[in-house]
Write a structure and sequence with these properties.
Organism: Chlorogloeopsis fritschii PCC 6912
Largest sheet: 8 strands, parallel
Strand content: 15-25%
Keywords: Metal-binding, Transferase, Zinc
Oligomer: single chain
Radius of gyration: 18 Å
Number of strands: 12
Number of domains: 1
Protein name: 3-keto-5-aminohexanoate cleavage protein
Strand order of the largest sheet: 3-2-1-12-11-10-9-4
Pfam families: BKACE
Shape: globular
Cofactor: Zn(2+)
CATH topology: TIM Barrel
Length: 307
Amino acid sequence: MNNELPLIIECRCNEITYRQDNPALPYSPKEIVREAVRAWEAGASIFHWHGRDPESGKPRNDVELYLEVIQGIREQTDLLIHPTLGYITQNRVEDRVRHILAVNDDPVLRVDMAPVDFGSLNVDFWNPQAKQFTSYDQVYVNTRANLKAVLEVFKEHNIYVSSVCWDVGQMRTARCFQEMGLLPQETLWEFVFTGEVMPAGAAATIPGLQAFMAEVPAGNQWLALCWNGDVMRVAAWAITLGGHVGIGLGDYAYTRFGKPHNGELVEKVAKMAHTLGREVATPAQAREILKMPPRAFARQELQATAN
């Protein structure tokens, strides 16, 4: 790994968490676009989000909700757009990818990358005070048949895939799909560490990070994030070891900083990178680092077209 590459920061703005811990977490398309602009101004080059009901915050996969966000981001930033897949509870692959394919033939609005989680896991939360799980039967089921079907769609439509892995076994699974020719050789590996309340994922330790790194094919880039946990310590390791960082209110509320918005969290990682002697990548640099083609339209051209 080349630790002189500029640092790619991905803003992970809302996932499936709610506002009880931080009211800055966005639900509506307008709020999500606001957070995208804040993150971009602070140094993010990739923006990841989930469709949410604008009022209740419940997960929604309406194409219109995604289109409004994509349009707003393209008009105001040059961020790499990275929406979630449709929720796994939707059994049909067509339903999971509909919002991504809806813009795929548009050279301006098409998304830049789509995430694929490479396996299943138990998602019961742990209560450290009660020393009990809050449930005992919650499973995120993501079969290899489902993975194969999603990857076949993405290959057909030439969509860049980020490989999201919650443990080393999922890294090994993803590499099998590379050998099958369904996962491209150029992918961004996203290592998911988890905090105390989510023990099913990888622990945020140096040995845990090294185990992930050992599975990364030569020349590929990797990024570390922490779901339901504070990523800051992992971020310092990733910055010094040549990786990249994901952070946002979708992963953790960061109440030790008060009630920060996503841009303020991105800014903390950017400042850490500068302190540690590493530059922060612009979206254009991120495209180059990830070996993506340049975008067909600049945001100024999109604004002119809209007018």
